[in-house]
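Hey,
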Amino acid sequence: MAMNIPFRRELNFIYGAVAEVAPGIRRIVAENPSPFTLYGTGTYIVGRGDVAVIDPGPADSAHIAMLLEGLEGESISHILVTHTHTDHSPGCRLLQEHTDAKTYAYGPHGSGKLEQGVPVEEGGDMDFQPDQLVRDGDVLDGGDWSIKCVYTPGHTSNHMCYQLREHKALFTGDHVMGWSTSIISPPDGDMGAYIASLEKLLEHDDEVYWPTHGPSIADPKPHVRAFIAHRRRREEQILACVGQGVHHIQDMVPLMYTELPEFMYPAAARSVLAAVVYLVGKGKLRTEGEVQLAARYRLA
């Protein structure tokens, strides 16, 4: 059954200003707005005194300078990265020019796929190498805070969410956002892993989500259920398209994304490809040769 996703785009912020958004949580938004980042990358600060910084953002020296100005008199003890897209992790290198804090992440770009022998095309932050690897369930302790690592592959194979345990607040990166669904782009993006990671969050006790882009999500579980239903509906649309004689992804996209501007079609096609890979794996679709954007698909 299709469900309406309760999207929300409103966000009160000033570029370059560190603002408290909840007890123990501050945010500064980088000025890198786009159709993929909404207003820009939201860099989060957890705690007071000895703090953790989550997703320093793009390689933007002005953003890092304003972050450091907002933390004057405090010390950064941890730099956490949700994943290695270029709007999330490159700021680590600039930030580490001013602090001895280590970076924490699941791994470099492609981690989670490279170990399986899946080559990952360039496009992420290929230079990022975390100082400290973290795994699902790991706990990082600060002066007045503790953060639990929640592994959520799908958007990327190295995507990690972080739960501020004292407030049951989950920093969701690009895994779950309040203003948009996430693009799942193979080979690093994986629809099966993404849906499994969404279902995993339904077992958690988080009370609020703080995505890296856009506003918070105050009622997480209905939002996650709507995301899962949305992906299932996309699968149904793909199968319906093929059943009606539309055999190529490029021809499915305009039929499935009727309200999307045409310049976004290539990104939508990547998510359709991810769903097609998933459906081929489940035995619902077939193709001759490699599963790719240009292939011709038929019902199994």
